[in-house]
Amino acid sequence: MNLSRTARAMLWAALAGGLAVVYLPLLVVLLNSFNADRTFGWPPSGFTVRWWEAAWNSTGVREALWTSIQAALGATAIALVLGTMVAFALQRHSFFGRDAVSLLIILPIALPGIVTGIALNNAFRAVLEPFGLGLGMFTVIVGHATFCVVTVYNNVLARLRRTGSSLEEASADLGADVFTTFRLVTFPMIRSALLAGGLLAFALSFDEIIVTTFTAGAGVKTLPLWIFENLFRPNQAPVVNVVAAALIVLSVVPIYFAQRLSGGEASNR
Amino acid sequence: MNTTANTTPPGPPPPAAPGAAPRGAAAPAPGGPRRRLAAFLHRHAPLRLSLLLSAPMLWLGVAYLGALAAMFISALWRTDTFTGDLVRELTWANFQELLTAEVYRTIALRSVGVAAAVTLIDLVVAFPMAFAMAKLASPRAQRWLVIAVLTPLWASYLVKAYAWRVLLSADGLLGWGYGLTATIITLSYLWLPYMILPIYAGLERLPNSLLEAAGDLGARGWRTFRTVVWPLTFPAVVAGSIFTFSLSLGDYITVKIVGGRSQLIGNVVYDNIGAANNLPFAAAVATVPVLIMLAYLAAVRRTGALENL
C-alpha cells in the first residue's frame, strides 16, 4: 500500500497515544490504592498498604464478591445451554423467521440496559408477587442470563460456521447416533468456543450494574452494586479504590485464559 | 460384534457396523430406547429444530419479549396523583407530556447528542488504531496489540468510570471537573474497545492485495482509504457504532458518577421508577431510546452490520 512515511508515523502515533489513554486511568487507580492521603490529592503525599488491609477485612466487600460470583456462575450456566441451542438451530437449520430469531438474541444487549432492567423488574413483580416471592438472587440470575446468551451464541455460531457439518455427517455414516455424535464429535469441536463464550458471559454478568439494580431485591448486593453505593461516601473512598484496583488486577485472569484458548486454537489449525 | 451384544442385553447398544443401518433407513432402528430416540430425531429435522429452539424461545421470545411488551403497555397507563396507585386505563397522557414538556425534549436531544458525540469520537480514535493494528503491525505484534485492547474490556465498567471520576476531580491529575463534557469523555473511553475490535476485524478481513492493487493503480493513501478501505469496512464501523450508540443512550450510571448535575434519558427513567414511583411514565420515557435504537438497527440492517456483531 502506498502509505507515505508521515502517514505511517501518524498511524503508529495514534495507536500508541490511544493505548496510553486507555491505560492511564487504570494506572492512576492502581497507584491511588496505595495513596496515603484519604482524598486522593494528586500527586500522592505518601504510600501505604493499609487500605488494602481494610478492604481485605471488609465483610461488605467479601459478601458482595461472593454474591457476584454466584450470580455470574448461574447466568453463565444458563447462557451456555440456551446459547448453544440457538446457535445449532440457526446454523444447522434454515427456517422461516431465522433472521427474526437472530435479532431477538441480540436484542437484550442492543437495547439500553435500563429498558431490559425495568421490563424485567415489572414482569418479575407481576409474576412472582402472587406467589409471595420477591426479587432476589434468582431474578438477578434470570436477568443476567437474558443478555449473556448472545456471547455464547456468537462464539458457538462462529465455530459451527467454520467447522461445517461434514465431520458430523461422517460420524453418522459410520453409524454413530445423534447423541454419540454430539458427545464424540460435535462437543469436542465446540468446546473451546463454549469456554470463550462462557468466559465472556461470566465477565458480562460480573460487571453488570444496571440490570442488577432493577432485578436485585433488598437483600442481594453484587460487587458493582456495593461499589456504586459506596462511591459517593467520602470515608469509604480508599476501600472503594482498593476494590477497583483489585478488579483491574483480577481482570488479567480471564485474559490469560482467553489467550490460551485462542492460542491453542491457532496451533491446532 | 453383535454376538457380544446379545450376551449382555442391558448394556448400551453397540455401534452399528458401517453399512448395516444406512442413514434414514425406514427399517425399525435396532437397540434400546435411546437409540430409537436418536434415530427418530435423526429422521425428523423439524422436530430437532423445534427442540433446539424451544427453551431459548420460551425464555427470550415469550418471557423477555412479553416483559418488554408489558412494559410498553404500562406506558399507556397512569398513576393516581394522590395515592400513587396504578390506574389501568389506556391514555396517551404520558406520551403527550413527553412530547410537549420542554424539559424532556431537551433531555432526549441531549442524550442523542451525547450518544452521537461518543460514537463519533470513538470512530475517529478507533479507526487509525485499528488500521495500525491490522495493516502495519507484524502478526506477532498484532496478537499483543489485540490483548492490549481487550484487557481494559475485562476491567469493570464501574471501575473505569470511577477512574475518570478520580482523574477529573478538582484536585485530580487532570482536574477538569464534572459535567456533560466529562460524561462524553468517560463514555467514549468506556466504549472505545467496542469500536476498535469490530473495525480491526473488518480490516483484517480486507485483503492486502486490494490495497496493493489500489496502490499499483496510482491511488495514494487518502484515495485508497476513501474508495477501497472505507466502503469495505463500513459494515464493521456500523457494527461498532451500534455498541457505542446504544450503550451511551441508555446510560445513567456514568452521568451520575462524572456528570455533575446533568441528566440524560436514563436518569429520567431511573428517577421515575425510584423516587417518583411512576412506572407508566418511566416506561413511556424508556420507549424513546428503544424507538431510536430500533430505527437505527432497521436502518443499518442492509449494510450487513448485524453479521459483524
Automatic annotation (TrEMBL), chain A:
Pfam families: BPD_transp_1
GO cellular component: plasma membrane
Stretches assigned to the ABC transmembrane type-1 domain: 65-258
Bilayer topology: Multi-pass membrane protein
Subcellular location(s) per record: Cell membrane
Record key words, sorted: Cell membrane, Membrane, Transmembrane, Transmembrane helix, Transport
Highest taxon, organism lineage: Bacteria
Membrane keyword on record: yes
An annotated GO BP: transmembrane transport
Transmembrane segments: 12-34, 65-88, 100-120, 132-153, 193-219, 239-258
Protein family membership: Belongs to the binding-protein-dependent transport system permease family. CysTW subfamily.
Protein's name according to its UniProt entry: Spermidine/putrescine ABC transporter permease
TrEMBL record, chain B:
Pfam families: BPD_transp_1
Residue ranges, annotated region (Disordered): 1-31
CDD domains: TM_PBP2
Hydrolase as UniProt keyword: no
Keyword check for Transmembrane: yes
Membrane-spanning intervals of the chain: 51-77, 107-132, 144-164, 176-197, 228-249, 279-299
Subcellular location: Cell membrane
Superkingdom field: Bacteria
Gene3D superfamilies from the UniProt entry: MetI-like
Gene Ontology annotations for the cellular component aspect, listed alphabetically: plasma membrane
Biological process annotations from GO: transmembrane transport
Domain ABC transmembrane type-1: 108-300
InterPro entries linked to this entry: MetI-like, MetI-like_sf
Membrane topology, record value: Multi-pass membrane protein
Low complexity biased stretches: 18-29
Coarse class of the protein's main subcellular location: membrane
Keywords attached to this entry: Cell membrane, Membrane, Transmembrane, Transmembrane helix, Transport
UniProt xrefs under PANTHER family: INNER MEMBRANE ABC TRANSPORTER PERMEASE PROTEIN YDCU-RELATED (PTHR42929:SF1), INNER MEMBRANE ABC TRANSPORTER PERMEASE PROTEIN YDCU-RELATED-RELATED (PTHR42929)
Family to which the UniProt record says this protein belongs: Belongs to the binding-protein-dependent transport system permease family. CysTW subfamily.
Protein name: Spermidine/putrescine ABC transporter permease
Naturally occurring in which organism (per UniProt): Planobispora siamensis
